Amino acid sequence: MVLRHSDDYVEGYELLVLRKSEKADMLMDFASLSLKKGESWHSSSKDERAFLLAEGSAEIIVGKKVDWIGPGIEGFAKNDSVTIDLLPGGETKIRASRTSLLDENPTVLHLPKETKVVIKALSERALFYVSSTDNNMDFSPRLYLPYECRVEYRNEGTMQGTATRIVRTVFDKQTAPWSNLVLGEDVNLPGRWSSYPPHHHPQPEIYHYRFFPAQGYGMTALGTEAYQLHNRDTLLITGNKDHPQVAAPGYAMWYLWVIRHLDGNPYISPEFTPEHMWVDQPGAQIWEMKKPSH
Fold first, then answer.
1. pLDDT of 93-112, one tens digit each?
2. What global pTM score does this model have?
3. 78 forms bridges with which residues in the sheet?
C-alpha cells in the first residue's frame, strides 16, 4: 500500500504511519520532524526511537550520555558534519548537518525508551525522519556517525548494471541486537532497479521516498499490485510480498527503509524469489541490443 504526501511536510512532528491501523499492522510509527530556524522540539517517549537527519543543521540535547564510535578525545568528537560534547550534568550536546540525501551518509540518533531529547534547528529548516516502536530493553543512547554507515554498491557487475544501487545500513540485528528495528537508506540510480532480484520477508517494512528532481517518479510491484511512486510517498510492506522497484530515467530515487523485527523472528536477511535469481549469477546470459552493421 502507498500513502501519498504531495504537499510539503507540516511544521513540527507529523505522524505519517501509525503502527496499527485499518490499513496495515506495521508494529512501528514513522514520522517527519520539520523545524524552522530557531525552533525547538522537546520530547520523551515510552518507545525506542531513531532520528535520521535528512536535511539542514540542528543542535540536539539528549538527557543522557550518548555513545558513539569514532575518532575524538574524551567527552568530545568531531568530523566534517557532527560535533559531540558530553555536558557536566550528564547530558550530551550534538550538532549535526546534512546537505545531500544522495551524496552524504546519514547521521542517526538512536534512543531507548524514557529518554528526553530537545532538537533545535540551526539552518532555515532542519528535517528528521523518526521511526519508533515498543521496546522494553534499556540500552545506551547511540549516535551513528556518517563514516560508520555500512555502504554497499549492490549488484555491480551483474545484470548489465541495471540493478546497481547504493545501500547504506545504519544498524541491524548484528550491530544493534538490543533494537527492535533495522534502519538504512538506498539510493536508486536513475532508470535502474533496486530491491532486485525480487525478495520478501515476514517482518513489516516501511519505505519513504524522495526524488531528485522532485517531480520525478518511480514504480514498485508490491506482490502482484503495481504502484506509481512520487516524492514523499510512503510504501507499507507486509505479508511476505516481493517489493522490487525502479526509478524513471533521469530521476534519482532515495528512500529510507525501516524494518520491525517480529517477536521470536528477527530480520536477518531477505528471501529471494527463486525463479529470478539466475540474473544475479556470474556469467548470466542476458540479451543485449546489437545495432545492425551496414
1. 999 999 999 999 999 999 99
2. 0.94
3. 83
